[in-house]
Amino acid sequence: MSTDDTAGRNAQGNEPTWDPQTQQWVAAGHRWDAQAQQWVPLEATAPMVPVVPEVAAVPEAAVVPEVAVVPEVAAVPEVAVVPEAPVVPEVPVVAEVPAVAEAPAVPVVPAMDAAAAAASSSEVPAAAAPAPFAAQQYPPQTYPAPTGAQAAGWPAAPQPGAQPPLPGQSGPAKKGLGTGAIIGIAAGGVALIAIIGVVIAMLVAPRGGATAASSPADVVTAYLEAVAASDAKTALSLLAANPGTGNPLLTDEVLEASNALAPIDDIEVTATGADDDEYLQEFDVNYTIGGDPVTATFRAVDYDGDHKWEVESGTSDLYLSYGFEGLSLTVNGEAVDADSVTVFPGTYELATDSPYHTLAGTTTVTISDPNDYSTNFDDVTVELNDDGLAMFQKSITDAVNTCLASKSLVAGCGIDLPETISDGTRIIDGTVTRTLDASAQAVMANLTPDTLYSDPMWVDGPYIGSVDITADCESDGQLYTGCTFVFMPTLGSPLVDFTTDPPTVRWD
Description:
With about 500 residues, the chain is of the alpha+beta class.
């Protein structure tokens, strides 16, 4: 088909127009059939797409108000130009008319009478159709970005080709939170948790401890102040080498007992300048323990270079003397069962909770300098207390009296008798009488324990002495009464075992 003006008109001179409702060329009650390549009456074939309801025809010069393409319909791909024939792809709706690159060629309008042409031309809105010339091109249209109120969230104006909602329909559905909003909320929650964690950490931080930015002198001062305040946790946190667990004397309770015996006060820290470098600084420290002035040397170290100074050595090992095996001991009221214990600077009292023993010697010592290893309990010895001495004497006396009272050959206490002696005389069992001689009686009247050495729970008694024995006997077939015997067993040294309750006596 020719694309000039004459070829596009019918015999009456009517010019075809593009009907956006039916998506086809129309003229004088006819439409252009692209497949048949001819004009056919409008009533002969149903329109290709449904006509938008309630859209009234307007005069030729008027533009249909706000009639747009139904939303969410895919845009029409570029219409290919077939020589002398307008080819329109069969798509439901033309989304945006301006996006059509080329308009189809103008079809030839069939001849019709003037009256029909005049009636038909008044119903076709010419303003919405593209120009019916295949050669005509439409430049791409661009739209400025929203500004002002629109950019701030106001609804944007309908874009060209867009159809407003039909009567009875609501606007676009509200959207939920976007991914970015959800991520932002989650990040805010994490930040809030982190802040809470920092606050908790500040609340449970050790009391009175020095911070990572503390100076070397501050760390030494803070350490001794923590010890003086009976704050073992803070004191331990300021040590470069924590003694670790298993040290029963590095507690608040033991420090409280120490400060009750002799409080620490008047702390003065002075740098010596000896061997100082960026990793170690030495200080002379003057302070008082129980009002008595003491001097000590402390070192602050920063071996890893993180500017967090710590006390190199702030504790000492306090050695107990030997000879306490089996005896329950306490230091400042805390039970100990080792040969040495680790302690803070302070005052420490060695004691026992045994009901029968006491400690003699220097039982209270003071540790002022962690580098002084001479302080110990080496001169402490164990003795029986009054109750222990009474129990010792009673135990031996009861055992001896029981053995002496026996009439049998077997009496215990190491004074059992044989049935037949070396000359053939037979001792009649059940007739034996035992008594202590004068020397033995004197010993029994003044029983004193031997010195307690390695094991204070086993207490040796003195040698007691001879036992006088009389009994009935038989010799050469003749029975005699009141026989006396010499060179019989004697009472030796008793051993009182305090590991049993009540204590028992052995005769080894």
